[in-house]
Amino acid sequence: MGNTGAPRTTSWCSHCGAGLVAPPGGSSSGVRCALCHRVTRIERHRSVGNAVVLAPPSPPRTLIPVRRELPAGYPVARGKKRAVLVGVSYTGTDYELRGTVNDVDSMKSLLCGKFGFPSNCILVLTEKRSDDPYMVPTRENLLLAMRWLVEDCDAGDSLVFHFSGHGVQKLDTNGDEVDGYNEALCPLDFEDKGKILDDEINETIVRPLRPGVKLHAIIDTCHSGTILDLRYLCRLSRTGYWQWENHTRQPHKPKGTSGGLAISISGCKDDQKSADSSGFPESAEIGAMTDSFIKAVQSEPGTTYGRLLSAMRGTIRDGQGMGRRLLPGRVGSFVRKMVTSSSVQEPQLCSSEVFDIYRKPFLL
């Protein structure tokens, strides 16, 4: 029996090549790609049965890169080193955070001063920039900034995504999480517009990475261990060595890069909460993870990923355990024995591919 429904139109994205399906009944229209989120204009041509053949994109669109129009405040420069730094304070709410702007300022100083990132290739989103509506860390702005970061990436590019704010877990409904929960970032308007799940983060800044492109995500939130949905998690074994674990639950799902390397360094395990550095003497308000990361990088030039993790772990444990160490006598001894190490946040390393963390130098 033939199909009596409306003709279905098919084409492909003129930007990334993904398949597109246009709604029936229209004439000339634009269809937004589910993969790269760009709009491709398609035109209906003659019908063949119930299928409608569409004209392919014109040659200039396939030969000349076409970029979206970006807000005026976005960096014009497209250097080989680019970064998006996000600090969300949630000002005026019951869950307001202090120090996220300090996190962003400290990270920008580190990137520019130590790793040679041009300041005009760094995009900053904080509530301090309320004079520019596109620089406020809303859900829409955050996703736009993430797409800007990886757009037209090419071999030799070093990209950094840093987020300081709230992170949460949500029940996994598609079965691709080992622990049964998705991790998510909370933009400023998450209560109205929704959170950004790890699946969407992976699709936006991991999958577009081409061969020779390197992305580092520095995430200072609660529940952030596998926030990029990368395949491999580096976990500290009982013998005291960092070892890789494969966290792929559904190998057929495209969670990897397009040939590049994605690495995330986060503040704690998926089931842990993060903290600020209020336990550290003489510290400004700054996230414990961001603080420990910057100190580890500055104190050990040319460090490896293994040494970086160990240094961060030591700094966080010293800071978060300070209150317990200051308790004197038998009371302090009792508390130190009763409080387990699981109560102290553990920095996490994830990657799209396995490497020797004790030999591979940490470079941005």
TrEMBL record:
Occurrences of domain Peptidase C14 caspase (ranges): 80-323
Domain of life: Eukaryota
InterPro entries from the UniProt entry: Metacaspase, Pept_C14_caspase
Biological process, per Gene Ontology: proteolysis
Gene Ontology CC entries for this record: cytoplasm
Molecular function GO labels: cysteine-type endopeptidase activity
Family: Belongs to the peptidase C14B family.
Name used for this protein in its record: Peptidase C14 caspase domain-containing protein
Organism this protein belongs to: Lolium multiflorum
